[in-house]
Amino acid sequence: TNGQGRGHDARRKVREQHVTPSPAGSVGSDDHAHRVLKSEFIERDNRKYFLDLKENQRGRFLRIRQTVGKGHGSMGYYGQGIEQTIVLPAQGLIEFRDALSQLIEDYGDEDADEHGRTGSRNRLDSPELPEAASFRVDNKRFYFDVGSNRYGVFLKISEVR
């Protein structure tokens, strides 16, 4: 593993305040009232994850953006590929971290190959997955649904206002 408990090809880059936290032209890249405290970038396969810890007049929050490249030459609504964003207020970060840590501890596979597939698990085996969970922060509710497919176990996070 690469010290993060995940696959070998995951790349992680830390970016400080002086670097633009989101790609130009993306949703939320023009938010002048938000001060970026710290940013990280993770790339795995055709997915890129941008984690931006920001602060505005209401407090601190974590913006998590995922972009999925559709391949060379294909353009989506926001440019190449598809993007999704979720914003967690600071009050929800501990619950988010705990839920994610528990998922990795229970279902992370140290033997995954470079594409995230497991070598030792039969594709027809269906791992017993935890029940969906949710928590409320301010006027938002966050749902955590664990699923699996041929590539492994994943966490789907939904934000409802």
From TrEMBL:
Belongs to the PUR DNA-binding protein family. The keyword Mitochondrion does not apply. Pfam families: PurA. One of its GO terms (cellular component) is nucleus. Keywords: DNA-binding. The keyword Heme does not apply. Gene3D superfamilies: 3.10.450.700, 3.30.2450.30. The lineage of its organism: Eukaryota, Metazoa, Chordata, Craniata, Vertebrata. Residues 1-32 are annotated as: Disordered. This is Purine-rich element binding protein G. GO terms for molecular function: DNA-binding transcription factor activity, RNA polymerase II-specific; purine-rich negative regulatory element binding; RNA polymerase II transcription regulatory region sequence-specific DNA binding.
